[in-house]
Write a structure and sequence with these properties.
Structural class: mainly alpha
Largest sheet: none
Number of helices: 15
Oligomer: single chain
Distance between the termini: 70 Å
Order of helices and strands: HHHHHHHHHHHHHHH
Shape: flat
Strand content: under 5%
CATH topology of the largest domain: Tetracycline Repressor, domain 2
Number of domains: 2
Helix content: over 70%
CATH class of the largest domain: Mainly Alpha
Radius of gyration: 20 Å
CATH superfamily of the largest domain: UbiA prenyltransferase
């Protein structure tokens, strides 16, 4: 084998590279929140239809990830956090990522329409379009509000799951959407505070880059304050209950404390572990979302035994 052939073999894409193209970590959150939206709905769904629907929603999320990696390959190549992704690393070509993203987009929407209903499929199609076009192609490189508006794409899955079961939209599904939508900015801005160098190099107009850390800290506090009533209000609906509400009060008190700690942090003060507070809040924010939706599942299970709810 020549050196050229050996090099080509070393860079040949494997299954793991194509799977990574679908952003499996993001997909796991989509699957979980859509699954919760489906299960907490007041209408039961046949298990086969439910599982197929979640599969197609997951494929749609993966399609969004592939389209995002196709368009953002130049940015990903600059940022340390994303440089090893399949496209910038050269293991998958941009054309392959585009083809996979488009094919999976069409497949996921068509099959969800066949398995569930047109509304759920329409919401999935809009979610893919919103993430790939509105956020990735338009907002991400042009406005520091990119993550605020773009956060809607990640907030639709529980609404889609609810639509699979009910064929409609309700206050409960809107509040599940709002919970993720309001959670997204403080979650990503906490990350941006200690990853600012990456966004600087890639010239992505994250709030930390365009307005500085102080303004970003202010925004984190404001959005967290706005998030709290949404999270607690969800507990007062038909899918909430005392277990969810108690957990939500505790989690939001901790999250709000973290946002206040970030807001109060002195940029000039010496810190043995730089951005320790921001990293702590970022890590908790991931747990925060999973626990809120997990508690909704607990309430649904308790109601099934005649114990939960109000």
């Amino acid at each position: 084998m020549t050196d050229t052939n050996a090099s080509a073999f070393q860079h040949e894409a494997g299954f793991g590279d194509y799977f990574a193209l679908l952003k499996p970590r993001v997909m796991s959150l989509v699957i979980f929140t859509a699954f919760v939206g489906l299960l907490v709905a007041p209408v039961s769904v046949h298990p086969v239809i439910g599982l197929c629907s979640i599969l197609f929603i997951a494929i749609g999320a993966g399609a969004s990830g592939a389209l995002n990696m196709w368009w953002d390959a130049d940015i990903d190549a600059v940022m340390k956090r994303t440089a090893n992704r399949p496209v910038p690393a050269g293991r998958v070509t941009a054309d392959e990522a585009l083809a996979i993203g488009l094919a999976l987009s069409v497949m996921s929407v068509v099959f969800l329409a066949l398995a569930a209903n047109i509304l759920a499929a329409g919401l999935l199609a809009f979610t893919i379009f919103f993430y790939a076009v509105i956020y990735t192609m338009l907002l991400k490189r042009w406005t520091p509000q990119n993550i605020v508006i773009g956060g809607a794409a990640g907030a639709f899955p529980p609404m889609i799951g609810w639509a699979v079961a009910t064929g409609g939209v309700s206050l409960e599904s809107v509040l599940m959407f709002a919970l993720i939508f309001m959670w997204t900015p403080p979650h990503f801005w906490a990350l941006a505070l200690f990853m600012k160098g990456d966004y600087d190099k890639a010239r992505v107009p994250m709030l930390t880059v365009t307005h500085g850390r102080r303004v970003t800290r202010n925004h984190i506090l404001v959005y967290t304050v706005l998030l709290v009533p949404v999270a607690i209000g969800l507990g007062l609906t038909s899918i909430g209950g005392p277990v969810y509400l108690a957990a939500a009060v505790l989690m939001n008190a901790w999250f709000l404390k973290g946002a206040v700690d970030i807001w109060r942090r002195d940029e000039t003060a010496a810190d043995a572990d730089a951005y320790r507070t921001e990293k702590s809040v970022f890590r908790f924010s991931i747990l925060y979302l999973f626990l809120h939706f997990g508690m909704l599942l607990v309430e649904a299970t308790l109601r099934g035994f005649g114990l939960g709810g109000w």
